[in-house]
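To illustrate the input format used throughout this study, we show a single complete record. The first block contains the structure-token representation of the backbone; no residue identities are included at this stage. The design step must infer an amino acid for every position from geometry alone.
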């Protein structure tokens, strides 16, 4: 789309599927089951943005403490401690109920953290934990909408993680298809007796994009690497039904 400023995702191979990257200041929802690589994708988005684009990033975690994040991602060569010393990265951890209170109050403390490093990117992990606070699907969806609307006011490119759409319980991220600007689904299908990782772009608001299912892998020293030129020969729906059964 003419006049749209694109932001590279930081995920090798993904921008080809996105049509050049994310639209700046858009909201991106990464859906997937446990172990599909959601948190890795979020942190790679932040790390490569800081290192390669000089765009500071904030990681808002509802699940993992700061020390665990630094330890788990050392294998990729991601030195978040160094970036934090350079004011290029910041981890903020809140319990989901604390975030609800912050959203109700306008998100001031989170916004203060963004301004403290002049962050251009934010990753929020995860919507599922946040949604489980609420007693009904309606309440959860209204709370998610409020969270997205708050983040949009900050003029920052935001990536959220959440449980996969087709298997999500009522109180998780089900019904979120219409709220984000971009939705990316991560899969872990069985192919030839083994499970592989696959990715598809389900939605980009107002833009054309590739709808093909592409394999990806986790590469030491790199992180996620997507192969848009390769195909996946499996029936995801059938495989996932067997897995759920």
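Output of the design step:
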């Amino acid at each position: 789309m003419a006049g749209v400023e694109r932001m590279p995702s930081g995920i090798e191979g993904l921008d080809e599927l996105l049509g050049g990257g994310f639209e700046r200041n858009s909201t991106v929802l990464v859906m997937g089951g446990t172990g599909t690589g959601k948190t890795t994708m979020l942190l790679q988005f932040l790390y490569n943005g800081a290192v390669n684009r000089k765009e500071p990033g904030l990681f808002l975690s509802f699940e993992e403490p700061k020390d665990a994040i630094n330890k788990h991602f050392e294998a990729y060569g991601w030195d978040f401690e160094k970036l934090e010393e350079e004011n290029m990265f910041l981890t903020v951890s809140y319990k989901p109920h604390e975030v609800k209170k912050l959203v109700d109050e306008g998100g001031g403390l989170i916004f203060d953290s963004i301004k403290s490093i002049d962050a251009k990117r934010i990753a929020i992990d995860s919507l599922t934990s946040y949604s489980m606070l609420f007693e009904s699907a309606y309440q959860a969806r209204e709370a998610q909408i409020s969270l997205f609307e708050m983040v949009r006011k900050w003029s920052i490119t935001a990536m959220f993680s959440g449980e996969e759409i087709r298997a999500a319980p009522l109180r998780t991220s089900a019904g979120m298809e219409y709220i984000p600007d971009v939705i990316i689904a991560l899969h872990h299908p069985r192919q030839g007796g083994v499970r592989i990782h696959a990715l598809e772009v389900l939605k980009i608001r107002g833009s054309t994009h590739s709808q093909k299912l592409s394999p990806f892998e986790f590469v030491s020293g790199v992180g996620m690497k997507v192969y848009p030129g390769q195909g996946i020969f499996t029936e995801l729906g059938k495989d996932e039904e067997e897995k759920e059964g």
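Structural context for interpreting the output: The longest helix spans residues 38-53. Residues 25 and 153 are 9 Å apart (CA to CA).
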